[in-house]
């Protein structure tokens, strides 16, 4: 190729440079798609982009007050001389279904699919009260509230802890959760033994409720109690009323009794002490466990097994100052016992949640703040005393030293 031909070729390439660059830019923009600055919300993102974001287990913190000697084995079925405390972090799996406690059929549980314990820390009494106050501090409105869950008959420690976390998650409770657990034998035929253990735990529950009422900045205290735990809770509230603390220092709000295993006459005496407390009974006559309890109690009517569809049964509860909710429609036919409908049914959980999370106009904007001038962290090292000067021994001056200088 001669010099003239090369010059023509170079000019031709230069003339094509700009169109080629422009075409390459268009091709690149077609591959990349729209500018990210133009995406206004997640709904306008590409499907694969949102699907690529992994969902994480949801943590739920639960304070624990226990009268069991331990958490597993024989110790979990034995009465401790006094209550001991802990703070547990449970996790709810991303695919959680309301009303269920996900657990593996076999093998080890994992946080991706199951409700699991992520961590637990033991606390002494002072640490428990201080930690509780710190968790309440900084919350606004109904999120300053405390929910106390008291389990029922035939319940292990692990089951009670998982159930507490599941209820908090499904009820969308934004306050502080406290589990009170007592030494159930976790046996279907351990009814009498469980009743004795519940009786022995009354003072500890009363003391816990009193302490919760003294928590700085606390909003309202709600009690959710199931089965025999309903009897235990009403006994503790009755004892508090007799001791002059009927309203837990003005903080007691909803008392929800789910299928309470309480004799009607006993319930009447309990209500006489604590009324006008805001007590609601969730009841169904289909509850087979309460039917067995009635047989063991010489066929005496249990409060949680009344037929609220009958005006006379409903009136019997309401005249004592309590409300009643009929949950028979949610007791599925495939449930053999129908004793845990309150926590198995998403609809009933929704009713419970709407009750304990309802906003209150009088303190909707109230902020809980610990008074730092009165709060003492039990984990803080003791204050170091300021060093004091060693006293100097004073000796009388000698006669020569007393003579004034000229």
Question: Can you walk me through this structure?
Answer:
The chain is of the alpha/beta class. The protein has a single domain, classed as Rossmann fold (3-Layer(aba) Sandwich), CATH 3.40.50. 36% of the residues lie in helices and 17% in strands. Helix 7 links the parallel strand 6 and strand 7 (252-258). Helix 5 (191-200) runs parallel beside helix 7, helix 6 (202-213) packs across helix 7 and helix 7 packs parallel to helix 8 (264-274). The longest helix is centred in the first third of the chain and has 30 residues, at 3-32. The protein is globular.
H-E string: HHEEEHEHEHHEHEHEHHEHHH
List how many beta strands DSSP finds: 9
As residue ranges, the low-confidence spans are 1-50, 385-406
The proportion of strand residues reads: 15-25%
CATH evolutionary superfamily: Alpha/Beta hydrolase fold, catalytic domain
Report strand order across the widest sheet. 3-2-1-5-4-6-7-8-9
The CATH topology assignment is: Rossmann fold
Q: What is the count of DSSP helices, taking H or I runs of 4+ residues?
A: 13
The first-level CATH class is given as Alpha Beta
Largest sheet: 9 strands, mixed
The termini sit apart by 122 Å
Structural class, by secondary structure, is: alpha/beta
Instruction: Write down the overall geometry.
Output: globular
Helix content: 25-40%
Computed Rg:
33 Å
| Count of structural domains | 1
Provide mean pLDDT, rounded.
82
**CATH structural architecture:** 3-Layer(aba) Sandwich
